Amino acid sequence: MDAGFLERKQELIEESQVEPGLFAGVMNRLRSFVAPFVRTLVQAKQRMRVGDFIGGLISDVERKNAESIAYRYDQERKEMQYFLGESEWDHRPLLLELATQVGQELGRPDGVIVFDPSAFAKKGTESVGVQRQWCGRLGKVDNCQVGVYMGYVSDVEHALVNMRLYLPREWAKDRQRRKKCHVPRDVRFQTRHELALSMLDEMGQRLPHAWITGDDEMGRSSAFRRELRAREEQYLLAVPSNTLIRDLDVIPPNLDDAEPQRKTPFMRVDRWRDALPAAAWLAVNVRDGEQGPLCVELVSWRVQAKTDQRRIGPEELLVIIRTPEANGAWKYDFYLSNAPPSTTSEELARAAKAEHRIEECLERGKSEAGLADYEVRGWGGWHHHQALSLIAAWFLNVEKRRGEKKDTGPHISTNAIHHRPLAPCRRRMRPTTPSRARMHAEIGTHPNGPLLLPLSTQPVAALGLTTKADLGQ
């Protein structure tokens, strides 16, 4: 690990420390919080187990699996393992409730829905969906399971709201392995992009949004972009640097009138970038860097891109954002969008930076809510653990925002990094109205009233909660 990483890690640890009094009454609030999620469960024991498991996920248990959480509550290990891995209960209503709450509390008309595949390294071949496959986070092919995650980002906060396990084609066709891991009969092979679209169709109306974003694994598929256009969704999707594009704004060379006009040839997007003059780049302040406000440079251009079938796609907006690195070099990110060319650079930069927020959500889930700590092999167990982990992370999100409301005064920030100086930027970000913001149906008020109960005087030591929880960042 380099010195910069270790320094930033220490800063994050210091920022995440919270006052012990913030935890007062947290168990009462947790019980109230869990109530709307478990109302669809028929068995009282299952409802109790959900509360216990979520409590364990936000506790100081080092390894947040069924066995460790059972020991935390002095319960039988096999009973908790059975509840998580074999008991039949549907996790989907719990995730619908989660999306509803996130939409109510964080929802804004200019919100951003983000999709991101995330891999979990695994040994062996028995866990459902595991095989050697592309692991985006490692940047190589490795033995892993892959989940496709759906996140929501607004100017209030950001949270994960849904997930799908990617079942490779080899698994989908193997009856013996499917039976051993209890894969439902109606589950068929779907690409990662098809999994993202199914989540969008299921939950998109619950999350007010103006943009769909994702990394270059999502954006490289022209079919995925086509499906989003068919759904009248506005997207800004990262694409690889070798994407072939045709510049629609360049003036073709003057030719003899007798010769037909030749179209501009296709070229790699990184080579097109290298030919840009310095004046083409526009400085934009995106205001959300780790060390304070961050200035980036951006260019947007009308282009056509080659499709997956090597055909010519429709007109799209190419967006390139470059970010200064510590060594003085530039980091480049490439995007394609169906937004109008008149979309402001500030709005494009805002949507692009929102795409990176899902990485923070995944890190929160893994470090604070046990997202990667599962020790189950079957289909049901994986989805049960993931759903409860997303809900536990949402509880920490709720508690974090509650802590921010208890700030000590109007002139002191809960996070000192927001007051660090920044070198002047030529152009500052300002709130803008998205050019094609979609106003989805309004969501009704929560049927169970407020999630949080008044504070109690229960001591922190009795709660067994981690003081590293993401409540004070």
Task: Describe the protein's architecture and organization.
- 35% of the residues lie in helices and 19% in strands.
- Strands 1, 2, 3, 4, 5, 6, 7, 8, 9, 10, 11 and 12 form a twelve-stranded mixed sheet that branches.
- It starts with a helix and ends in a 68-residue tail after the last helix.
- The protein has helices at residues 3-15, 26-38, 44-57, 66-72, 77-85, 92-106, 169-173, 175-180, 192-203, 216-219, 222-230, 269-274, 345-368, 379-405, and strands at residues 112-121, 131-135, 140-153, 158-165, 211-214, 235-238, 244-247, 267-268, 282-285, 295-306, 312-324, 330-337.
- 39% of the residues are buried.
Outline of the structure:
With 473 residues, this protein is an alpha+beta fold.
Give the SSE layout.
Blueprint: H1 3-15, H2 26-38, H3 44-57, H4 66-72, H5 77-85, H6 92-106, E1 112-121, E2 131-135, E3 140-153, E4 158-165, H7 169-173, H8 175-180, H9 192-203, E5 211-214, H10 216-219, H11 222-230, E6 235-238, E7 244-247, E8 267-268, H12 269-274, E9 282-285, E10 295-306, E11 312-324, E12 330-337, H13 345-368, H14 379-405
Parallel strand pairs: 1-5, 5-6
Antiparallel strand pairs: 1-3, 2-3, 3-4, 6-12, 7-8, 7-10, 9-10, 10-11, 11-12
